[in-house]
Amino acid sequence: MTGYIGCFGLVGIAVFIALLFLRRKKIEGEMSEFYKENSLYTTENAPPNVRESLGASDNLYCCRANLTLATGANIEFCWWEWYIKSTTVVNNAPTTSFDYRLAVSFAPGTVGDEFIQKAIRWADKSGREASQKVKDFFVLNTETPYRAEKLADGSLLICWQILKRRDVYDAKINWLRQNVAIKITPEIALLEEIHALLPVAPKTVEPKIIETTPVEPQIAGTVFYKHDNYAAIRVTFNSRWPNLQLELHYNSGKFDKEGYDELESDASFADPGTPNAAVLTLTDETWAGEAEKLFEQSFGGRARILRDGVSVERHESLAYCNNPFR
Known about the structure:
11 strands, globular
């Protein structure tokens, strides 16, 4: 009887682990779709004053984005992401944790003063009830920003602690869409008056839709570009495989001797005057050793793919190495 109970227990644990793995894959797929649907792609022309205000971090990256407001207007803003890595040791066993952060910034003069004050009041913790403060101490608050301020140049910056989940990210986009209001200048006011006087365009006949055979979807890969700097490359890699870390090192005597001579976070690999282009694509099925070789061929130096600070098996796929339960 005891043997049967032990077998059932092992089966239950195996099923539980499999379900957790499937849930993780589902979350990763949803996050990838979020970035595509909202056209979030990294940019090298991030506002330097906002970057400085957020702090110099190797993991900080910026995307240019366009937001369609509830009124139908479009406004450009910057979408920032980074994480803070920490390691704790319990019983001589190190445990690594990641604290994910998200920020949005709006250039001076693009949003109204009413929205700026609303965001600042929202992040103000002084008026919160004691029960909410206790709850925030034990449960991560992804809804309320921990920082919102108008910078010296007039830019608006709002920051949250987040979880890497589609519903958390969708909530941020939806809140911005419903609450952001553009700053009404005399020129915009005049355009709105002109549009109100224009006659409504007649309805057009919808073109006939020709049915075609659907194209089978192809497995999407993670693309790295010629003009990506080191920080952007690492963030792109970590967004697809969050349990792995990519390091690029100088091909130097120091690396041969110590195994470490990492590039600076802002290191670039191509003349900005040359056309940008994709240089390599990785998928879940790419072997870790093959991925390291491709990085070395595309960006030079020596590449290492690690998990919790230890090099992964070169003859295993990136998906297998990233599996949180392996």
